[in-house]
Amino acid sequence: MTTPHPPTGPDELHLWWLAVPPPGAATQTAARLLDAGQRERAARLRRPLHRHRKVMAHAGLRALLAGYTGREPAELTIRRAACPACGGPHGRPRTPDAGGLEYSMAHSGDLVLYAFADRPVGVDLEASAVRTSTVRTVSRWLCADERRLLEGLPEAERQAAFVRCWVRKEAYLKGIGTGLAHGVEAAPDRKGGAWRLISLDPPEGYVAAAALPGTPSAGVRVRSATLLAARIVDLVERTETAGGSGCRTPGPDGTNPNRTTTGC
Q1: Beta 111-117 vs 12-19: how paired, if at all?
Q2: Domain 12-251 adopts which CATH fold?
Q3: How far apart are CA 92 and CA 116, in angstroms?
Q4: Which residues contact 76 (CB under 8 A, 6 or more apart)?
Q5: pTM
Q6: Which of 53, 83, 111, 252 would bridge with 88, disulfide CB 3.0–4.6 Å?
């Protein structure tokens, strides 16, 4: 059995960052952690690079869940809860073996972000560079207050503000469980109760945010750590060699200094 990580405490958010390595043998090894459905969905992607990124992202999720639950990663069941808006099978991810642990994942380019908490959580990660045409097009989908805010900014500031707005928006929608399936006009002060929107500190070239239920002024202790791709491969190989005795991935132990962040 894998050794569990320390559980997430109240008002605590565990973040993990995975830098996906270039395609290679690690992809085939990591794919052995996935279930049949995950491998099938990855195989549908036409571009090899996209398949590689998807495999590594989901293998990383299983490795981390194994660390939190003490279960073998290949044994874990990952399903989608019912969407709270329509009942469709595209709500928040669920793992029966994880008890009350909630989690969310986002990936952009070669970077993956994972979040774990003791309550519903959503995260989003995007590249900071975005085309002006994208800003103009996607801004039309936002709620009226967000559109007015962006339109009132100088052109030079609008792009960066749009990306910050978007990652917060998508983190919130993933947190409440609807995702983008029902549009992006929903706002935390309109439905779903009070939510904290937290700006994160990703590597250069990216923008990221998290969303947790609670009043915007409440503090959140963010614990951040790095998941190395080599540890995913090592987990597969050691699990198979030992006939089910997995290895331990590192806990969120202050790789980045612990800090208290308030929503705004």
Answers
A1: antiparallel
A2: Ribosomal Protein L22; Chain A (3.90.470)
A3: 12
A4: 62, 65, 66, 69, 95, 97, 98
A5: 0.86
A6: 83
For residue range 134-157, what is the model confidence (pLDDT) as tens digits? 888 888 888 888 889 998 999 889
Question: How does pLDDT run across 79-99, given as a tens digit for each residue?
Answer: 888 888 888 888 899 998 788
φ, ψ of residue 76 to 5 degrees: the values are -75, 140
Domain boundaries, the chain: 12-251
Cβ of 210: how many Cβ atoms within 10 Å? 31
Of these ranges, 20-29, 115-124, 127-136, the one predicted with the greatest mean pLDDT is: 115-124
Q: Quickly list DSSP for 156-186.
A: HHHHHHHHHHHHHHHHHHHHHT-GGGG-S--
What DSSP string runs through the chain? -PPPPPPP-TTEEEEEEEEPPPSSHHHHHHHTTS-HHHHHHHHT-SSHHHHHHHHHHHHHHHHHHHHHH-S-GGG---EEPPPTTT--S-SSEE-GGGTT-EEEEEEETTEEEEEEESS--EEEEEES---HHHHHHHHTTS-HHHHHHHHTS-HHHHHHHHHHHHHHHHHHHHHHT-GGGG-S---TTTSSS-EEEEE--PSTTEEEEEEEES-TTSEEEEEEEE--HHHHHHHHHHHHHTTS---PPPP--SSS--EEEE--
